[in-house]
Amino acid sequence: MKIVVLAGGLSTERNVALVTGTGVCRALRQKGYQAILVDMFMGLENYTGSLETIFDAPDGLCSDIRVESTAPDLEAVRKSRKDQSDSMFGQDVLTVCGMADVVFLALHGSCGEDGRVQAAFDLLGIPYTGSGYLSSGMAMDKAITKRYLDAENIRSAPWRDVTYCEADIPRLVEELEVPCAVKIVNGGSSIGVELPDTKEELEAALRSILAYGNHVIVEKKIVGRELTVGVLGDTYLPAVEIIPKNAYFDYEAKYQSDFVTEVCPAQIEESVWHEMGKAAVQLHKALGLSVYSRTDFLLDSEGKPWCLEVNTLPGMTPTSLFPQEAAAVGMSYPDLCETIVLESIKARKAERK
User: Fold this and answer.
1) Of 85, 191, 268, 282, which one has the fewest beta carbons inside 10 Å?
2) pLDDT surpasses 80 at 257
3) What distances in angstroms separate CA 37 from CA 146, 189, 302, one per listed residue?
4) Residue 295's CB: how many other CB atoms inside 10 A?
């Protein structure tokens, strides 16, 4: 089977996606598939071989890459591409994806998780992994996800949906309660998230987040242990507890191992795990997600889990949270990657009926 592992892109999570894609590509090649890694935005502009033989490329076009402690400079990435068109698909990306039996979406953030790539592939008849375009778009939008959480009676923090400009900040500082969490609606990897405790910090947070967009949710700040539960098919996996060495599980902590400890299975009451797992499956189904997802929670001092959000394309490096959960039930990383591919092909066929 020929597989394109589509990574990179042009979101703040670009480098995370490249690391995920490299791990997935090598795992699938280990399983015997003709897998290649393709950067969605940069494309194949530096590939000098023939497209007809690209699936035989040494090491699947993989290269060694790591996530730095800060998010990438997207303007520099954009300027570095030879093709300066407005297309998010780089040179020959759609051509080579059309040659594949399936595309493994190793994308993160707005460039891949918001449903636009899935919609394009649906129109082109290109099978891909994970959820479809509509459910992906809804899950990516934190305001929509919060509405689903409310409708499904899944415990989550009280919140407000806020669209604003610079001139609105003084009024919002007066209206909003602190401490709170301010989150850009379509962000990921803790980028565009601020946790102000004072009115002064809230004012600075609202100004800072305008760099990422003007639509946010503002939640009551819940203090607690950070946990996550994956869903594979219709089954929830063991929980992982994330213990950051900094105050919060920010971008740096997520991708620099020196800044975080991860415990899987999490040392929590079994009843709490089941409550989170059932909530994760419930949200997965309510949003119409397919194949796999990962839902994040906070566990407060009274042992109550509060649902934060759902990730439709969770990190999939060999040491990421979702693969850790799968390993806890005896599923190897290559087997997990293969399962996602095979179940996604079934999901796409079912959608076409």
Assistant:
1) 85
2) no
3) 34, 22, 45
4) 30
